[in-house]
Protein 1
Amino acid sequence: MNSNIPYKIYLSEDEMPRYWYNVKAHMKGGHEPFLNPATGEPCTKKDLSAVFCDECIDQELNDRDELIEIPEEIRSFYKMYRPSPLVRAYCLEKLLDTPAEIYYKFEGNNTSGSHKLNSAAAQAYYAKKQGLTSITTETGAGQWGTALAMAAAYFGLNLDVYMVKVSYEQKPFRREVIRTYGANVVPSPSTTTAAGRKILEEHPGTGGSLGCAISEAVEKARETPNCRYVLGSVLDHVLLHQSIIGQECKIAMDKYGIKPDMIIGCAGGGSNLGGLISPFMGEKLDGKNNIDILAVEPASCPSLTRGKYAYDFCDSARTTPLAKMYTLGCGFMPSPNHAGGLRYHGMSPVLSRLYHDGYMRATSVEQTKVFEAAVKFARCEGILPAPESAHAIRVAMDEAIKCREEGKKKVILFGLTGTGYFDMTAYKSYNDGTMTDTIPTDEDLQRGFETIPKCKANEGI
Ligand SMILES: *Cc1c(COP(=O)(O)O)cnc(C)c1O
């Protein structure tokens, strides 16, 4: 056992990576293009530029350059909370009595409480650089809204956050953090957009959904001068920004001669996992390693493990371009007793392609098992994990236990994406013993699949 490793490996500011890692450069043509739903043709830069910032579109469409320089202004922002520590989970190893070495990359050490700040900073910077004055977005649980509010405050942009109404009402503290950073929080559906008004008319009293909040934020961006929409996961440029996680990890591991046998991450839209694995996956695609890469999703929203690989809308209002991805159908809604995040119907097109081609695996876990792992982890490693992150903890623990049973020594790395201080209602239901698991039936999934568009590109699916 390699016990010469410190509990926490911190890089210095100088060692912080100067480049993001574009894994698509190793994917021989990236993935299938986004399609314009009106024409069925691949999206052009022009199609996208009414909604997204120019520089982000260039990054989105770039499958040539392996390394993309991180502008100095963004590095300065990153220095407020990066490099983030790579932690050797000695206490967890001891608790599990495992011969495995367990490491986690901790992204919760900033006020937003998650990795989402890595892309928020980049996207706010590019918006400012383009001369825009405001940006819009949606938020569900609130981590993304918080991260973007911090970045918008720093770079001097106005921000409207369309927050799913149930979260707006149930998470008043999250909402207040966002307002403290100067953003305007609008409960969605709202009367400020045509999309919101239409939904309110059809479903009076609705608590809203992410899909509806996206539609409102996109509409607002289209109709406000000098304004664009910003998305916190799924898209290739978001994964690119998140590759700072993997880049730092690789540097820290190389410095101590640590070679992971396994990398595990939770997957909602795929941005943290995509970012964590980027440089390792690049080497794997080049045949230079054979790391076992594993995505973990909730059993209640199993897009990779039970979804279809098809062209689908990225939002439930069916307004975005079509992306080829593993999807449960843009009309799919996880059961209301599903507590954590990771409730997106689709999955990053990059990860979908890599999964489809067999370069990574996926598994799903039930939420009571996830919270059981979260509580064990909190009590021995000290960090109170976000429920999303605890999906990765669950599987890392299971793998470490398997190592003990099989007498195998493996090096396991997982992504600890954030902290769970705003998820105490979910922890309460676990602690009270009232949390339940719901696994969608095949019929439930079939209803979602029926909302996948029946376009030409989906023939035979
Ligand atoms: C948003 C979020 C996730 C899931 O998003 P990905 O894009 O799949 O990474 C995971 N963990 C935390 C803490 C989050 O806030």
Protein 2
Amino acid sequence: MIQTPYYLIDKTKLLRNMEKIAYIREKSGAKALLALKCFATWSVFDLMSEYMDGTTSSSLYEVKLGREKFGGETHAYSVAYADHEIDEVISNADKIIFNSISQLERFSDKAKGIARGLRLNPQVSTSSFDLADPARPFSRLGEWDVSKVEKVMDRISGFMIHNNCENTSFSLFDEMLTKIEEKFSPLLERAEWVSLGGGIHFTGDDYPVDEFCARLKAFSEKFGVQVYLEPGEASITNTTSLEVTVLDTLFNGKNLAIVDSSIEAHMLDLLIYRETAKLAPNEGSERYLICGKSCLAGDIFGEFNFDKPLQIGDRLSFLDAAGYTMVKKNWFNGVKMPAIAIRELDGSIKLVRDFNFADFEQSLS
Ligand SMILES: *Cc1c(COP(=O)(O)O)cnc(C)c1O
């Protein structure tokens, strides 16, 4: 038995997402790059790299990880590169996408040997949460002025546009893409490739995959471009759980249970976006607030139903815990980081990484 807490990645579930991605690549002609900022657990890259074209990144370290551990096509993007890192970025990338004309002008000569691109900001997005809205007012994420971009077209061959966010609706995606076509058509006509970013939940259960493929294909043919997708969340959605153990139970107007994990340390987005964890089956008459073991008062996974009272030592399993979790885990309160385990295709479970006191100590000095 593996000691909790640990993240458990199920390769059978991962394979289902990968097969959908492979189908979309085949049917639409688009290429698919894993967005490492969402998921960078390289122990499963051997499986993923059979179904995806490569990776995209948001920093020097991510681009190096993509090249070393995933292979295939390696896209480099960053909100801003520093002088001291640009050479290493270029030597690890097949394409580099600059966030601004200013960064392009600063580094375009150095990057002459690889494909260069620019991020465009269509000033519309599907996000309703301004923290995560690339099109928020005064956004720093990409250029939007067509006439300014036209002046640097001699130095770039393509664009990246990322304006979808947890978008489960095909019609909303379609609407966004139409707006992009209207706004940027003079630029798109001169491009060889266009990356449409991430945030499109095309691996969801009821997503109209064939319509999506047809739309991508039509876009690609209209402008004569190779389309790229950069799925983060869509690649790994519903593949992973966070396995925890109940350490204590209390009553304070409600039944409380404390587990050996923490949302602030291990599932930070629940805190940032004020969401609750997912736990199945969430049925029965015994209702508990499931709380983390950090000292943050609001360290709460959520309120769930159980068919019998929780006991110390009971095991719980939070669902859909792959995206933006392992990449964000931290040492707040010195809470032990969850280990990482993989359920192989044959059902056997393998521990691939554990963390201990030395890791905690060495994360600071
Ligand atoms: C965050 C991000 C992605 C991945 O987004 P998901 O919502 O995880 O699919 C892809 N491309 C860019 C540029 C991003 O910033």
